[in-house]
Amino acid sequence: QVQLVESGGGLVQAGGSLRLSCAASGRTSTITSTAWLRAAPGKEREFVATIIWRDSSTTYADSVKGRFTISKDTAQNTVYLRMNDLKPEDTAVYYCAASMGRGRHDYWGQGTQVTVSS
């Protein structure tokens, strides 16, 4: 089993920045990738970014490219999402999800709220 705990959400004005953290515990050696996804009110959950643990390669949704950066600290088993130039449309509950290489998100965190005021 893997446990994920997100932190770092909050209220920020448009144009501001936040850094989210996703700390993993348990059988972390089984994780092959970690993703951030978000769910805005009234909208379906959407992909934000992912990082591959083996080579640190990253992928981003078009809506966040150039503004968000996903990174990891292997020693701390933690994945970060640095969010710059935040916009009101970035308001959502942000979740991290870990995959074990089976083409799905196997473990989820509880989510952290990000609210961007205009």
Structure description:
By secondary structure, the chain is mostly beta strands. The protein is built from no helices and eleven strands. It has strands spanning 2-7, 10-13, 18-26, 33-39, 46-52, 58-60, 68-73, 78-83, 92-99, 107-108, 112-117. The strands form two sheets. Strands 2, 4, 5, 6, 9, 10 and 11 form a seven-stranded mixed beta sheet that branches. It is globular and about 40 Å long. The N and C termini lie far apart (40 Å). The model has no long low-confidence stretch (mean pLDDT 96).
Order of helices and strands: EEEEEEEEEEE
Measured on Cα atoms, how large is the radius of gyration?
Answer: 13 Å
Shape summary: globular
| E-strand count | 11
Helix content: under 10%
Distance between the termini: 40 Å
Low-confidence stretches: none
Average pLDDT metric: 96
Q: Number of helical runs?
A: 0
Summarize this, please?
It contains no helices and eleven strands.
Summarize this structure as a short list of keywords or feature phrases.
globular; 118 residues; four-stranded antiparallel beta sheet; 0% helix; seven-stranded mixed beta sheet; mainly beta
Topology (elements, then pairings):
Elements: E1 2-7, E2 10-13, E3 18-26, E4 33-39, E5 46-52, E6 58-60, E7 68-73, E8 78-83, E9 92-99, E10 107-108, E11 112-117
Parallel strand pairs: 2-11
Antiparallel strand pairs: 1-3, 3-8, 4-5, 4-9, 5-6, 7-8, 9-10, 9-11
